[in-house]
Amino acid sequence: KAGVTQTPRYLIKTRGQQVTLSCSPISGHRSVSWYQQTPGQGLQFLFEYFSETQRNKGNFPGRFSGRQFSNSRSEMNVSTLELGDSALYLCASSRSGDSSGANVLTFGAGSRLTVL
Amino acid sequence: DQQVKQNSPSLSVQEGRISILNCDYTNSMFDYFLWYKKYPAEGPTFLISISSIKDKNEDGRFTVFLNKSAKHLSLHIVPSQPGDSAVYFCAASGDDMRFGAGTRLTVKP
Predict the structure, then answer these.
(1) What's the pLDDT at B24?
(2) Which of A49, A58, B69, B80 is the most buried (most CB within 10 A)?
């Protein structure tokens, strides 16, 4: 079965611009989470969506936003880009995130954003 | 807020020996702990998990130990193989999933 697909894989933007990243989860997975990976900081949690609703949010400024569509596909948007936003953005999906067991996330390969 | 910490950014071991990766957490409400492995240009992949009510889980060469009183978990890989060279992330699951900064493991032939 197809894995988590993220597009685009690589992109370059300049300061002040905005960017939209896309994520298609595994079929049947209703939860989509987004993470930012930077060297030395590991994976920083951005937000999680479930059934088109933001269920949890990390400690990122309001410039970072997301949404989920009825088919569970998700997008995240970063406005007014800063140099420090350069990072690998990872999307992960899971079935439901309920407490019936370990909520194993399946990650996409990521979108690498470079801000100049 | 660093709820999950991996204090060793890197670890180097010889092939065939044991690799021990460590992780500490601060939130007692986490109900599962997981380890992920990440190769360059790929997303992290799930390796092994442990429930907060257990103290050990084993899967082949990989064993995870949980010490709740110390809020500490570790991943043991034995014997280590060159293909195990990757970045390993510790994760804790509660309302959402929080990750540590990762430990880069290098297994030398």
Answers:
(1) 96
(2) A49
